[in-house]
Design a protein that fits this description.
about 190 residues; VC0467-like; 5 helices; 10 strands; about 15% helix; about 30% strand; globular
Length: about 190
């Protein structure tokens, strides 16, 4: 008999969502785009927020979407359901003009002509940059409500994690939070099929 039936509930770690932190979806969230997602919070203003799903690769590479990019192995990720016609970039190049700091060693966008030049020179690649179609956005107070409804865990992260392989990134994100969430790694993606 199970003694602890709330093993899949989120217990607040008292971390507030803020730019540079990640959101880790709870395992029972089966919405297609947010299932097992890890979202980097890239901006917050007036209690609204936006970020990018780090672990949702599309079937496209950057050279297929942007003319003048000559490197073929830079994947594009689906950042979320908002602004699906806009390309976003996060990177770790601290000298790129017009970049916005997100966290230690993580920057948003910058001058895209410079980004293309650095890609074609081999300076920007998939180990220090990630490109997204769209973003994940929350209206004022919406993200706090979702956290209160236990949809998300808030966690610190590292530059290395943000730019790491997206495979199993949700499971690896759980290593940043309390050990009580270890069991989530073993939970089936769709429990109704078991």
């Amino acid at each position: 008999m199970l003694k602890n039936l709330d093993i899949f509930s989120v217990i607040s770690n008292n971390l507030e969502p803020k730019v540079g932190r990640i959101l880790i979806s709870e395992p029972l969230l089966i919405d297609d785009i947010f299932a097992r997602s890890v979202i980097l919070i890239a901006g917050m203003e007036n209690k609204s927020a936006f970020g990018f799903i780090l672990n949702n690769p599309s079937n496209k590479n950057l050279h297929e979407l942007i003319e003048g990019v000559n490197i073929e192995n830079i994947p594009v990720y689906i950042g979320g359901p908002v602004e699906r016609d806009v390309l976003f970039c996060i990177h770790s190049i601290d000298y790129l003009p017009d970049s916005i700091p997100i966290a230690d060693g993580i920057f948003l966008s910058g001058n895209f002509d410079n980004i293309k030049t650095l890609i074609n020179r081999g300076i920007i690649n998939s180990s220090n940059a990630r490109f997204f179609i769209g973003n994940s956005g929350w209206a004022p107070k919406q993200l706090h409500e979702e956290i209160n409804f236990n949809y998300w865990l808030v966690s610190e992260t590292t530059r290395e994690f943000v730019f790491s392989d997206s495979k199993n990134q949700w499971e690896r994100a759980l290593d940043f939070v309390d050990k009580r969430y270890e069991i989530w790694k073993n939970f089936p993606l769709n429990p109704e099929l078991n």
